[in-house]
Amino acid sequence: MKKHFNIIIAGAGGIAEAAGLILAEWSQVTPTLFIGNRTLDKAQSVAQWITEGTTKSCKIEAFHLSENEITAEMESILNQADIILDCLPGSQAPRIAKLAKEYQLHYANLTEYVAETDEIIVLAKEANTGFILQTGIAPGYIDVLANALFQQFCIDFKVNKVDKLEFKVGALTKNAVAPHYYGFTWSPVGVATEYLKNAITIRNFKKTEVAALSERTSIIINGITYEADLTSGGAADLPDALAGKVRKLDYKTLRFPRHYDWIQNQLDSIENAENPIQELQQIMQDKIPLMEDDQIILYAAVEGKDHNGILRRREVAKCILPLKVGKHQLRAIQTTTAAPLVQSAQLLLENNLKGVILQSQIETESFLNGNFIIAVYGKIE
């Protein structure tokens, strides 16, 4: 940030921690942070953690973010804030977005939930402030990267259509053991949701809804074999923006080999469950451990023929490991999710954008070369 801003962070989980610490440590001008959560002691704990972790002087205040009313404390903070960074579960996104619109604040969130995103699009369509949605890693960074690859391919090879645009992300542990070959590095409910809700793709140039986990493939990235399959949410709005321009587009989640076999066995066992997302989440939480030592693997590629009819392909692949920010070591899932959120906040605050800004509408070059993004993801070669 190049000037001082008052920033509300809604939530008190690992991404809220990371976003706050990154803002405190890496902003050119340190902001004032307000950490809000329905459980005040958790908000206070995050505020203290950020204070202890930054090497800079940063004013940080915790407050109770009520689920049922606008308290006097909330009113005071909302009236002096410039933006809300929504790190709460996706189901809460429309509620927090309404607060942002009512108090004329900018807003950015992380959720991959499609229905909630659609609700906010309607809510904020003619807002006087900017709303950047789905700003994490997937959806988020990976969509901006994929769109940048598509745009540059078309410019360099003098075409306006391509055959394939594929992008994949995996939040993985360093090691994986039988039978599930997986470890949780983030929300179990988020994993269960993306495995069961339909994926939005492009097939034969048309936006198409496809069942999650229905197109498994293998891929070698930097010499390591992974499996990839369709999951919901990660494509953001690219299927809308690039329909008619890309023959086949999809987002897939990367996993170690044999993980998806195990998941399919669990899904077969709950085939008639009334709430399969909840059932799958419970099974995974019972059998799969939470693990701290993580890595983010991401891959994006565009393929098509140039203006001379020669088949071309361009790829970007990255492996991102835990990173020290200030005095704290952050997990890879924290930095890769929080950095695009914070970069989106800077984009909103310094450009005074209005209305809804979706991933396809973000100016790719300035975003991918933003100071918060480069510090985590590095430059695109």
Q: Can you tell me about this structure?
A:
37% of the residues lie in helices and 27% in strands. It starts with 5 loop residues before the first strand and ends with a helix. By secondary structure, the chain is α/β, with parallel strands linked by helices. The mean pLDDT is 96. The strands form three sheets. Strands 7, 8, 9, 10, 11, 12, 13 and 14 form an eight-stranded mixed beta sheet that branches. Strands 3-2-1-4-5-6-17 form a seven-stranded parallel beta sheet, sandwiched between helices. Helix 1 crosses helix 11 and helix 7 (188-196) crosses helix 10.
Describe this structure in a few short sentences.
The chain has helices at residues 14-26, 40-53, 72-80, 93-102, 114-123, 141-157, 188-196, 238-241, 259-269, 276-287, 332-351, 364-368, 371-377; strands spanning 6-10, 32-37, 60-64, 83-86, 106-109, 130-132, 162-173, 199-203, 206-210, 217-221, 224-230, 246-255, 294-305, 311-320, 323-325, 328-330, 355-357.
Task: Give the helices and strands, then pairings.
Layout: E1 6-10, H1 14-26, E2 32-37, H2 40-53, E3 60-64, H3 72-80, E4 83-86, H4 93-102, E5 106-109, H5 114-123, E6 130-132, H6 141-157, E7 162-173, H7 188-196, E8 199-203, E9 206-210, E10 217-221, E11 224-230, H8 238-241, E12 246-255, H9 259-269, H10 276-287, E13 294-305, E14 311-320, E15 323-325, E16 328-330, H11 332-351, E17 355-357, H12 364-368, H13 371-377
Parallel strand pairs: 1-2, 1-4, 2-3, 4-5, 5-6, 6-17, 7-12
Antiparallel strand pairs: 7-13, 8-9, 8-12, 10-11, 11-12, 13-14, 15-16
